[in-house]
Amino acid sequence: MRTLLAVDGSEKARDAAQALSCLAPIPSLTVLHVLDIPTWTYPPVVPEMSSGLFATVEQQRREDGEQLIQQMRSILPSSVKKVSAHLEKGKAAEVILDTAAREQSGLIVMGSRGLGPTKELVLGSVSHNVIVQSHCPVLIIKRPMPGLRRIVLAIKGTEDAEAVVKFMTARPFLDSVEIVILTVVLFPLLWPIGTEAADSVKEKIVEAARQFVDDVASRLRSIGYRATNAVTVGRPETAISGWASETGADLIIVGTRHRGKVERLLLGSVSHAVLQSAPCSVLVIP
């Protein structure tokens, strides 16, 4: 599939470039670096001096960006067949999304700078903004990924399942992988556990969830994957990250079909919460 690799000068960007070796051969890769050109409003600068300063800074950033792209190209795996490079000015998330749409990318790959939740509330996060607005899957690399053996695939509903099965049918990964299809049953905080009626309802809900993930696992096994299924109860973001830690997963895949764009922007999303707490890289499928 056509892939977009968004890079900056961080170690996570190098990790993202090297992680492409875990993907199936890439026929066309776009390497994108967004130029961050600062603006000064204080102290006052006369227009003639301001334009000169901006031109100097932009030229230096452009030269640094070109050098960065060359470095990234030098570490790309041989499975990447064709590479094009772009330097663009603007806000990083907007440029990444616009470029992906223009290039008709089937996957965006980028590193995570690791902002904490407090900083993200104030400053925002490029990876978060890309995730909630992207129309194609987004792979966020949180740490070096020299190999890909185990995946925790977390789904909530039928739409998630269909999107994930479609993505996996395209054989996006290089090696055969072990997949755990996980769904998390979330009960209200005031759920009256302990009564016979409540326990009976809970058992029925858990059994329905088990049948749901068993069906998805069967579909993946039918196309050649080693897939098992699991159901757990709790907070989705905590349960998903915990399951990944316990199983030594190299990647978490989460779907976002059950939340609309506006809801995700206003309230946040499980995918973003997982990205914050995950012990490994995260692939989000819209």
Task: Characterise this structure.
It is elongated and about 75 Å long. By secondary structure, the protein is α/β, with parallel strands linked by helices. The protein has helices spanning 11-19, 47-74, 92-103, 117-123, 126-133, 158-169, 196-222, 236-247, 261-267, 270-277; strands at residues 3-6, 29-35, 83-89, 107-111, 138-141, 150-154, 178-185, 226-233, 251-255, 281-285. The two termini are 16 Å apart. It folds into two domains: 1-146, Rossmann fold; 147-286, HUPs (Rossmann fold), CATH 3.40.50.620. Helix 3 (92-103) runs parallel beside helix 5 (126-133), helix 6 packs parallel to helix 7 and helix 8 packs across helix 10 (270-277). It contains ten helices and ten strands. The protein has a ten-stranded mixed sheet with strand order 3-2-1-4-5-10-9-6-7-8, sandwiched between helices. The chain is 45% helix and 20% strand.
Give the tags:
286 residues, alpha/beta, Rossmann fold, ten-stranded mixed β-sheet, 10 helices
Task: Give a topology summary.
Layout: E1 3-6, H1 11-19, E2 29-35, H2 47-74, E3 83-89, H3 92-103, E4 107-111, H4 117-123, H5 126-133, E5 138-141, E6 150-154, H6 158-169, E7 178-185, H7 196-222, E8 226-233, H8 236-247, E9 251-255, H9 261-267, H10 270-277, E10 281-285
Parallel strand pairs: 1-2, 1-4, 2-3, 4-5, 6-7, 6-9, 7-8, 9-10
Antiparallel strand pairs: 5-10
